[in-house]
Amino acid sequence: MNIKFRSVTEDDLPQFKAFLDEHNMLSDSDYERLRIFLHKNPLLSKMAYLDDKIVGGVLCSYDGLRGHLLKLVVEEEYRKQGIGKKLIAEVIMELEKLGCPEVTINCRPFLQNWYASQGFEKLDYMFYIKYLNSDHKDQSC
Ligand SMILES: CC(C)(COP(=O)(O)OP(=O)(O)OC[C@H]1O[C@@H](n2cnc3c(N)ncnc32)[C@H](O)[C@@H]1OP(=O)(O)O)[C@@H](O)C(=O)NCCC(=O)NCCS
Q1: CA gap 67, 48 in Å, rounded
Q2: Chain centroid to CA 90: how far?
Q3: Is residue 48 a contact partner of residue 4, using CB atoms and an 8 Å limit?
Q4: pLDDT, tens digit, for every residue of 56-115?
Q5: Which are the contacts of 132, defined by CB distance < 8 A and separation ≥ 6?
Q6: Helices and strands counted in the chain (H then E)
Q7: Euclidean distance between CA atoms 92 and 106, whole angstroms
Q8: Quick one: which of 6, 40, 58, 76 has the fewest CB in 10 Å?
Q9: What domains can you pick out in the chain, each with its CATH number?
Q10: Which of 2-6, 44-48, 108-112 has the lowest mean pLDDT?
């Protein structure tokens, strides 16, 4: 299978948003926020694709101090073939070019082992969030 990887651009937005929607990663109101996110963080979000079909993706931002990964997902039938690992590696390569010293992810407990296998260390700190819009509960990682 010839899976390719590249940065998500604003032109990819309709298809990429549809991909994230299929995996319940975004709410309907998020299109404009996602456009702003991509605009502010060029090159950092990546997608895996096969011909015209998106089979995996991850969003990433860098605030100048730290990188933040979110919404990593690989289409179910394409999992366990190294796509998730390669998406993370592609993002890390971009962060390193920017001189970013560390990258975080807030993941669901069932993905803890996977992130540990990718070299992420679990911290003892509690993660707090204050929802400014209650519609975003359950959509935050
Ligand atoms: C987590 C996820 C992205 C992994 O993607 P993937 O393409 O299947 O992962 P990879 O094939 O790159 O996995 C790399 C390694 O992890 C292993 N692995 C895969 N899934 C694993 C799991 N659930 N737990 C532990 N290890 C796992 C693979 O065997 C592989 O090991 P190897 O390097 O020794 O061969 C994918 O399972 C997924 O999309 N899950 C749902 C995502 C989700 O719900 N996200 C919510 C937002 S955080």
Answers
A1: 20
A2: 11
A3: yes
A4: 999 999 999 999 999 999 999 999 999 999 999 999 999 999 999 999 998 888 999 999
A5: none
A6: 4, 5
A7: 16
A8: 76
A9: 4-136 (3.40.630.30)
A10: 108-112
Distance (angstroms) between ligand 1 centre and the Cα of 115 equals 8
Among 62, 41, 49, CA closest to 19: 49
Q: Is residue 130 packed enough to be buried (19+ CB in 10 Å), middle (13-18) or exposed (0-12)? A: exposed
Strand 53-62 and strand 46-50: pairing?
A: antiparallel
Give the closest residue (by CA) to ligand 1 atom 27: 114
**108: nearest Cα among 35, 24, 50:** 24
pLDDT digits (tens, 9 = 90+) for 8-38: 999 999 999 999 999 988 776 688 999 999 9
Question: Residue 99 is which amino acid?
Answer: G
- Classified as helix, coil or strand, 70 is strand
Place of tokens 């299109």: 31
Q: Is 73 in the pocket of ligand 1 (CB under 6 A)?
A: yes
From the alpha carbon of 71, which atom of ligand 1 is closest? 47
92 lines ligand 1 (CB under 6 A): no
